Every structure is written in structure tokens, then in C-alpha cells.
Amino acid sequence: MTVSTDEGQVQFDYDKLLIATGARPIRLNINGWNLPGVFLLHTMKDSFELNKYLETANPRRAVIVGAGYIGLEMADALTHRGIEVVIASRTPTVLATVDPGFGEVVQEELKRHGVVVRTGVGIDSITSSANHLHVTGNGFDENCDMVLIAVGVTPNVELGIEIGIPTGVKGALQVNRRMETTIPDIYVAGDCGETWHQLLDRNTYLPLGTTAHKQGRVAGENAVVGEREFAGSLGTQVVKLFNLVIARTGLRQDEARREGLDAVTTELAVNDHKAYYPGATTVRCLVTGDAKTGRLLGAQIMGTWGAEISKRNDIFAAALFNEMTVDRVSDLDLSYTPPLSSPWDPVQTACQAWSMEHRVRE
């Protein structure tokens, strides 16, 4: 193996090789994406450069292209710094990874904090004049002091392709569940490779930090002496935006139906803890299950910061991992104290509502 450094090329011999080259931000076909004041945010270096710009240029208005996790979290962060924020999204609602109804609630939370949200727009060009940036596109025309482009990532696969590793879903490097490639003694882990999806029972592409850590552990163990398989991802995710937390795991109803599953969904709004204890807030749950078998297929959950949304989403994730039915979630022995929950946790109450509506019995 040859490694190029500032001092020249260095040769290394190896018994086992792990490729973990990650991913890089998608660069849309936007003229002016590389102008000063325009940022792609993915690495620590990117964040240092952005922070330096914030401290030296003192921008007052920002346009964020993209309304996924990074774009929305940056809208939150910049707003807290006193910067006006305009979000430009090509999707009909922000945070397209969750159901549109949840996306609309997120959008209202953004607006409540002064963020301007423009959906269904495409950005074509960024120009610079008079110390300002001008962002234009289909139905979009805004002046600002900085632009952040956050529209997803694409896998860094050049090294793998060069040595003959085939690519698969979304151009990611193909691997088996041991994180092995088609080339003996070469492994792949993280955002440059495919991900085994536990529910879909096939590889997909899910560039998530939690997934990368697990894949790296599997690849490292197998490269030494182990016989471990990657158990699979469920796409479990969570984000905090101002005072709102939104999480999901498994499949949405539309995703499950595209896979040929007879998926049905029930929505329930319930207090996060006993109503007689002060400070109860509303938790909204979307539970998706198989109408024929009753198997839990996915969940989405949303509520205020402090309502244990992330950990409640993890209950759903654990149930999915263990292939539980929706009805069996009620059998879980979960903790209870009035300031934090109810004898039936909101997760269980939502699952009971699904079972009552769809009347699936084991």
C-alpha cells in the first residue's frame, strides 16, 4: 500500500486492510458554490473555518440550502448567535425523513424563532457583490452575508474502486455483513460503504455515525480473529431544534409499502408524564406496523426538549431490533415515576392505540 504525504510517498505492507474513507458533502450544480462566505459543513476542519468566518466577518444574515438534520441544526445554532436565517429546501416540507405532518410542526417551530422557511425551491446561483452574497433559483431570490450548503453526502469510494471493489447502493462500496469486500483481507466500514438494513433484509446506504462505529467494531474484530456479523441498522435518528425534539426508527408507512409490506399507521398524542404532576407536555407518536402479522415496522416520536423523546425512540428501536409485534411492546417492564412517565409509558400507550385500531392478535 502506498500513502502520499507532504514529505512524499510511503510504502506499507499489510495483512489486513480497513478502508474507512467516509463521505463528503454533495455539491449541487450551483454556480458560485466556492465563493468566500459559502460553506459545505461536514468535517471538523469545515466547522473551524465556519467559526472563524462567524468571528471575523460578523455576518448578520445567512441562507441555508437544505432542510435536513445539519441544515436545521445550523439554523438553530445561527439563530442563537443572533443571525437572521433563511432556509431554502427543494422538498415540500422540512426534515423530509419524517412524515409531512411532523415536518410541518418542525417548520412552525422554526418560524416561531424567526427562521424564514422557503420550501419547494431550487438554488441555481450564488453571486458576490458589495460585500454581500446574492442567492437565486427557482422561486428564490435573497441577499445574505453567508451561505451554508447542507444537502447530504456521497461516499468516498475512489480508493476502493481503484483496487477493484465493486460499488452498490448509491455508489457505496459493497460489503457483506462481516464488513468484508470481494477482495480477500480488505474490509470497509462507515460512510464509504453499504449498510445492512435489519428490516429490509438487504444492503442500503445509511451514513450515520452510530452505524459507522458499529461497523468499525465488526471489521476490526474480524480483521484480527473474530467471527462477528454486523447486526444491521434501523435508521434510528434524533434531532433537537430549539425546544422541539423529533426522532424516528425503522420504516415510515410509505417506505414499508414500497417494500410490499401491508403497513398501517396510528398516531396518538399523550402526556409525557402524569397530568397531575406539574409540567406535563404532549408527546406525539406515529406507530407503523404490519396489518397482517402485527409486527412493529417503525415509529416516529416528537415532543418538547426534556420529554425523554430520544430514549423513548430507543425503546421502539430495541423492540424493532428484537422483531417484536406492536402488541408485545406493552409487555415491556419499563420504569415509572410521576414526574417522568405514567404506568403505561407513552410508547406503550401509542402501541396499544395501534393494536386497538387495527385489531391484530397474536
UniProtKB/TrEMBL annotation:
PANTHER family: NAD(P)H SULFUR OXIDOREDUCTASE (COA-DEPENDENT) (PTHR43429:SF1), PYRIDINE NUCLEOTIDE-DISULFIDE OXIDOREDUCTASE DOMAIN-CONTAINING (PTHR43429)
All residue ranges annotated as the Pyridine nucleotide-disulphide oxidoreductase dimerisation domain in the record: 239-341
Sequence ranges assigned to domain FAD/NAD(P)-binding in this UniProt record: 7-216
Keyword field contains Metal-binding: no
InterPro entries: FAD-bd_OxRdtase, FAD/NAD-bd_sf, FAD/NAD-binding_dom, FAD/NAD-linked_Rdtase_dimer_sf, Pyr_nucl-diS_OxRdtase_dimer
SUPFAM superfamilies in the cross-refs: FAD/NAD(P)-binding domain, FAD/NAD-linked reductases, dimerisation (C-terminal) domain
TM region positions: none
Coiled-coil boundaries: none
GO molecular function: oxidoreductase activity
Membership in a protein family: Belongs to the class-III pyridine nucleotide-disulfide oxidoreductase family.
Name of protein: Putative FAD-dependent pyridine nucleotide-disulphide oxidoreductase
Pfam families: Pyr_redox_2 (PF07992), Pyr_redox_dim (PF02852)
Keywords, ordered alphabetically: FAD, Flavoprotein, Oxidoreductase, Redox-active center
Cofactor: FAD
Entry annotated with the keyword Oxidoreductase: yes
